[in-house]
Amino acid sequence: MTLEPRPRLVAPRRDLDRLRRRAEFLRELEEAKALRDRIAPRRARVRQLREAMRRATYHH
Description:
The protein has 60 residues and is mainly alpha-helical. The protein has one domain (15-57). It contains two helices and no strands. It has helices spanning 13-39, 41-57. Helix 1 (13-39) crosses helix 2. The longest helix is centred in the middle third of the chain and has 27 residues, at 13-39. The protein starts with 12 loop residues before the first helix and ends with a helix.
């Protein structure tokens, strides 16, 4: 009977740093989008309508 290595539950430090940076980037991106929507509400509405049309016309 051979023992297979158990999967590690703890991610290496490099991966944790990457995930932390990615999470920070996504938070900042969300903040930037919210700020852009507050500054230019007309553009935000147009963008939302275009996204809705794109979703409505997408076929699998």
